[in-house]
Design brief:
Layout (H helix, E strand, L loop, with lengths): L7 H37 L35 H36 L1 H11 L18 H50 L5 H28 L8 E5 H11 L1 H7 L2 E5 L4 E5 H17 L6 E8 L3 E8 L21 H6 L6 H11 L3 E7 L3 E9 L1 H4 L1
Parallel strand pairs: 2-4
Antiparallel strand pairs: 1-3, 4-5, 5-7, 6-7
Length: 390
């Protein structure tokens, strides 16, 4: 059986038993060695009697010309009594060591059970969570230990999962609605043509034109959904001029700019941008499209850029109708529209800024928005430079 497969309580007990065994046996060995040195060794050293102790006159000492070879001292023999005492001391000591290890292991097992009780309770609470109570949160112990922090982290994860699942549910419902609307319009138009009398050529043309418009709307919607989930092609990332990028975008939106007589100022001299040009073109085009669409007649748009050692910052500010403060953090959600009726009237589907956010995130950048009702909106995009990426 592998140690890692045992319960944590048992593993802690085995670890403590091993530590006690090493400590106790080491201490016992040291005691036995010390006892032999202190109490046994002095008794085995032979006592040498001097001539004064024997009551005789000391003999004169003569120094021979050649010193004699010293003989080895006699090896003293250990008395049987001392051997028996040593055996009794060692056996008694090892018996005490075994009792200490056993009692220490039992005590460790009981203490570990009490210490791990919050973990056990937390595990039981988590096991009771299923698909019927997926967002149920666990109780946080009053202590400020690791178990309390683990419970707080688990509850935070549950809230994130709930938010993610809710967003996914809303996305699915909104996507189904957006896809269903043009399909229902096409089917309704076809039924009108079929229910009437023999249709004329003009009626056929009108039906085909309506069907084509709804088909194009479906195509754009599907293309936008695919673009949101498309991976960044790192091989296609290059450094190019931000001024040329926005000149290309503004040329595509020239008709919309002229229709509302909007003044656009571009200050992007010597500002480089690194990334996949097609994706960034779409991202900034969506921001400018909204800045024009929701702007006031005779309004203005300012596009400025600043270069930093690690990032490039591009700011797009307009004088439009603005966004409510409580909705600025929701405008990047898929299919979200501040004013659904107005967005539908202007041909929006709520995916433009979601695609922009996805593109900026794929480039490891960031996008922030500041807005005030009736005053305008400012988007600030930061993109890393090529030197930072590599």
């Amino acid at each position: 059986m592998r140690i890692n497969s045992l319960p944590l309580r048992v593993r802690l007990t085995l670890l403590m038993a091993m530590i006690l065994s090493i400590a106790c046996f080491s201490l016992m060995a040291a005691l036995i060695y010390t006892a032999r040195i202190v109490y046994v060794a002095p008794q085995l050293v032979p006592k040498v009697s001097t001539s004064e102790e024997m009551g005789r006159e000391p003999l004169p000492v003569t120094i021979p010309s050649v010193p004699p070879i010293p003989s080895a001292p006699p090896i003293p023999s250990v008395p049987p009594v001392l051997i028996e005492q040593q055996i009794n001391f060692a056996s008694t000591g090892f018996l005490c060591v075994i009792l200490i290890i056993a009692s220490g292991s039992v005590l460790t097992y009981r203490v570990a059970g009490g210490a791990l009780k919050p973990v056990t309770d937390l595990s039981k609470e988590i096991e009771e969570i299923d698909e019927n109570n997926l967002y149920r949160q666990v109780q946080v112990p009053p202590s400020k230990d690791e178990v309390s922090r683990l419970s707080i982290s688990f509850n935070r994860m549950i809230r994130k999962l709930e938010k993610s699942f809710t967003a996914h549910k809303h996305f699915t419902a909104n996507a189904a609605h957006e896809l269903k609307t043009p399909i229902a319009a096409m089917l309704a138009r076809i039924e009108v043509v079929q229910l009437g009398g023999p249709p004329s050529l003009e009626e056929y043309k009108e039906a085909l034109q309506d069907t084509q418009c709804n088909a194009e709307r479906l195509n754009i919607l599907v293309h936008d959904l695919l673009r949101m989930n498309a991976d960044l092609n790192v091989a296609a990332c290059v450094t190019f001029s931000a001024k040329e990028l926005f000149q290309s975008i503004l040329s595509e939106l020239a008709a919309e700019v002229q229709s509302k007589d909007i003044d656009i100022e571009v200050h992007l001299e010597d500002i480089p941008v690194y990334g996949e040009r097609n994706l960034l073109h779409r991202a900034f085009s969506n921001i400018l499209h909204n800045a024009i669409k929701y702007n006031k007649p005779n309004g203005s748009i300012q596009i400025t850029g600043t270069r930093h050692p690690d990032t490039t910052r591009i700011t797009i500010a307009d004088t439009g109708i603005g966004i409510p403060e409580d909705q600025t953090d929701k405008i990047f959600e898929p299919f979200y529209c501040v004013d659904k009726s107005r967005s539908r009237e202007l041909g929006g589907n709520g995916l433009g800024l979601s695609i922009t956010k996805a593109v900026i995130d794929k480039h490891s950048g960031s996008i922030q928005v500041q807005s005030a009702m009736g005053m305008g909106t400012t988007f600030e995009v930061q993109l890393p430079n090529a030197s930072t990426v590599y």
